[in-house]
Amino acid sequence: MASKDLVAYSQSRAMLAIIKASFQAILANPSALVFSIAFPILFVLIFGAFRQDKGIQYSIAIQEGSDTSHFFYQTLAKNPFIKIVHFSDSASLRQALLRGKLTGVLRIQQSESTEAQGGVAVQFYTTTASSNTLGGFLQQLDYLALQQDAAQSSINKKVQLLPPQIEEVRPYRPIDFVLPGQIGFSILFSTLFGIAFTFYGLREQLVLKRFFATPIRRINILIGIGISRLFFQLVSVTVLIAFGHWVMDFTLSSGGLTFLSILLLTVLMLFLLMGAGLLISSVAKADSSIPLLINLFALPQLILSGTFFPVDVFPRWIQQISAVLPLRHFNDALRKISFEGESLLSCGTEIGMLIGWTVLIYFLTSRLIRWE
To answer: What is the pTM of this model?
Structure first.
């Protein structure tokens, strides 16, 4: 009789209970949600926002004072292979020409020829940095001029293409873009992981508590950890620059002075990242959450800050987000100093942003740091 009262053990119900408990454990882990859902959505938004230009698009600036009311300019602006860009000042335009980001500059003026009254003379100016797009654009220009001439019934509407002016400049090699980004990538993750795990381990293993039994001040503990990390990272940056310069012809426009400027800028960025590492180790409640917090801080910067590809491939709204990220300003300043030969003083905007981030991070760290 007692055996009949016993309820048979249900394997299926037990399995369903395990499935439910396991699923609840997954949902309780924030890293699973972030890496499985949040980051993929973020990357889809970022990479899905790449410009969908078909074929090669030539970026052209129009010289100030050009005749933009002429029909030839209107035809130029409507061409799907030509993008007319505008610059706030001549220095920005010059920088784009030197880096090969701009195919060239067009000057469109009323023709002075008595046989072409009402026509225009078109002068094209570029540099050797844009040699990869020069030939294709000149073909487009010839085609547009022929199209314009065929569309006009009067000889007085002809388009006169003057011989292009090409300035010989220092070549802008891929390494001049890649190496600064890789320096930023290297110090970003190694410093964050190194500082966060080191400080967390010292606290959880009660090493810091033992330090408190000695006369050493707390600030000296942080300075000791920071100096060792700073020295290590500067050695690694030096090796990267030396390898890039001697093996891959990375440009150091002013030689040793440029190298020292890069190291000084790197020191500022390292102070910022060490503060971020301390902040992350203080916020983390378990060592397993440290990689999640580091990736939340670092991965968006890695994608949006011009580390692997230029920021201007993104639409404007993503560029505006990128403009507030510290790694973006570090990368930009490195490229200005190394290739364009600018001094640290001329990188005031970038250095100001890095200092602002440093002050904010250390303010938060001073409020949230955990010693025990």
So the answer is: 0.76
